[in-house]
Amino acid sequence: MGILEVKGVGKRFGGLQALGDVNLSIKENSVHAIIGPNGAGKSTLLNCLVGKLIPDTGSVMFDGQSVLGRSPHEICQMGISRVFQTPEIFGDLTVMENVLIACFAKRDGSFELNAITSVRSQSDMRDMAETILRDVNMLDKHAMHAASLSRGDKRRLEMAMCLVQQPRMLLLDEPTAGMARADTNNTIDLLKEIRDTRDITIAIIEHDMHVVFSLADRITVLAQGTPLVEDSPENIKGHPKVREAYLGE
Ligand code: ADP
Ligand code: MG
Asked: In whole angstroms, what is the distance from residue 194 CA to residue 204 CA?
């Protein structure tokens, strides 16, 4: 049994079957990558796992409990945190304030801006936020406005916002999209550190094969809303069906 068990998940948008019949089992404390061409349904699948979308069919179980029908906040409290494809940070607020808001959101269930005034006074949260910012190497930038960060640092901040929620599982949708190579390599190092130093299961959607092969223990290839194959990175590299359907050979 995996910590996350997806069975028979389907999702339709009007006439489009975005997910057909997805079965996926993710082992606790592993890094599981989901790859596949644009439009394969990767983000849709992730959204179904975090309560942003409700699948039409199937079940999603996290640590033996159903995720379906729960609000994103309840799912967060179950121990799942996520980074979406487009960064979701508050540009007008400082790095520290963003992390505090994420902390607050897990406890009280909202990402409201006015929460920040009450949050400022909570020293336990501030201590935790400081620790996480130090862990992701951003403490020196704590007072900067989030909008002024580089793309790589925005991703790093989002990662801090997830980690401060002390998740058991981290879901990442293309964390290195649009990054320069140096930032990508920093992100790989950060994720390796998270993998090696915390009891966190990571599911990562990623188009950059260098990232995938640097991190993943298992890889699922999704094509047209259905898993084509799941295997170790070594086997995926040489898989004829994958080369044909995904690598375009
Ligand atoms: P991927 O992340 O693998 O690139 P997506 O999950 O974003 O793919 O999309 C899968 C398919 O579903 C695409 O054809 C996309 O256009 C469609 N789709 C995704 N979200 C919606 C939506 N909210 N409404 C309608 N169609 C959508
Ligand atoms: Mg996507």
From this structure: 13
Indicate the helix (H) or strand (E) that contains 35. strand 31-35
Q: Which domains does the chain have, with CATH numbers?
A: 1-79+167-249 (3.40.50.300), 90-165 (no CATH)
Distance between CA atoms of residues 134 and 72, nearest Å = 27
Residue 164 has what DSSP assignment?
T
pTM for the model stands at 0.90
pLDDT digits (tens, 9 = 90+) for 122-148: 778 889 899 999 988 999 999 999 999
44 neighbors 53 (Cβ within 8 angstroms): yes
In Å, what is the CA distance from 208 to each residue of 27, 40, 82, 213, 247?
22, 15, 19, 9, 12
pLDDT digits (tens, 9 = 90+) for 37-79: 999 999 999 999 988 899 999 999 999 999 998 988 889 889 9
The preferred substitution site among 13, 17, 45, 82 for testing ligand 1, maximizing ligand atoms within 8 Å of CB, is 13
Dist. CA 215–CA 205, nearest whole Å: 12
Distance CA 75, CA 47 (A): 12
Q: How many helices and strands (H and E) does the chain possess? A: 10, 10
Ligand 1 lined by 223 (C-beta under 6 Å): no
